[in-house]
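May I ask for an example protein's residues together with how it folds?

___
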Amino acid sequence: MTIVTSTRTYATALIAGLSLLLTGCFITPGKFNSELVLTQDNQFTFTYDGEIFFLGLSSLAEMGASSEKFEPDECYDENTFEGRDCTETELAEQREVWELNAPVRAAKAQEQAKQMGAIMGGIDPSDPQASAELVELLSRQRGWERVIDKGNGVFDVRYSASGDLSHDFMFPLVEGFPSTNPFVQIILREGNLVRVNAPGFAAQDGANPIFGMVGGMAGLGGMSSLTSQSPDGEENSNIPVLEGTFTIVTDGQIKANNTDEGSRADASGERLVWEISPRTKTAPTALIDLTS
């Protein structure tokens, strides 16, 4: 008996990742600085300055479309389990199976492209103008003060919002996009309590599914920090690493937080600071009482 194992693990993992991508978990921070100011007069100011990575517009997504190429499986000796060259007959059999499955692959690729366009506000990620369309989409939304396409799905942005704490708040919120992958959430509770969660600022937390998704894909070994590697070990440095600082400044009473060092004195009250990196295991969170 001949033992055959696939050498297309990288492509298989990539396709699996792109399938999960369609659930909406596809926007992540890169290098950034973000600050939230909360005051007892029920006002807030939130800023995010830095990189945002859209996986659907990156070269990883493009590789999914370009993987329509026959690559023979590797053959192994049935006794020693050592790799060997496949025979012509084995190669012919593999190619025949691959060709028979071509209609299934084509239909799946077409369906995924349609689904991706639907969750990206109608933007077709395979269109060369997709990034420009996203820049236009974000720029016309209030709060996006800077949107620059850096290429490969990475955008340099500045976002700022302020106003009354009369309702919950979430960032980012993109018109036509699913809101399943928030960086920061402000949740209002009864009694003038405010819960702040930042699930997007953790690389190893179940609250941020995209990092767990990509980190668990064997063929994309370095992606847990959003730095991918191809099978030959080449690093795709254009994919940003999660790195930054998240700060909360408030004149309210900090009831709970998970910073390493607790609050620090600030001219406006108290300051909480989280240093974010690919090693950050737990999403920043705080509970603040804004009762004056």
The CA atoms of residues 113 and 263 lie 46 Å apart. Residues 3-289 form one domain.
